[in-house]
Design brief:
Elements lengths: L2 H29 L3 H26 L3
Helix pairs in contact: 1-2
Length: about 60
């Protein structure tokens, strides 16, 4: 795999893990009753998922 491909793959993995962490945290915060913080975290999660989709698309482009 070329250097760019390896870097994009690594970034995709890191971003995937971050999305999961934010999602799990949002669920835990919501379960604890802090709806305001949970709402903000779910918004962050949505933005990260959008970024992940775009990064995945870039990773799949022919080079």
């Amino acid at each position: 795999m070329d250097d760019l491909g390896a870097r994009l793959s690594s970034a995709t993995t890191s971003l995937t893990e971050l999305v999961e962490t934010v999602s799990d945290t949002a669920e835990a915060v919501l379960a604890a009753g802090d709806e305001s913080t949970a709402t903000d975290l779910f918004e962050v999660e949505r933005a990260l998922r959008t970024a992940l989709r775009r990064l995945t698309g870039v990773s799949r482009r022919p080079r």
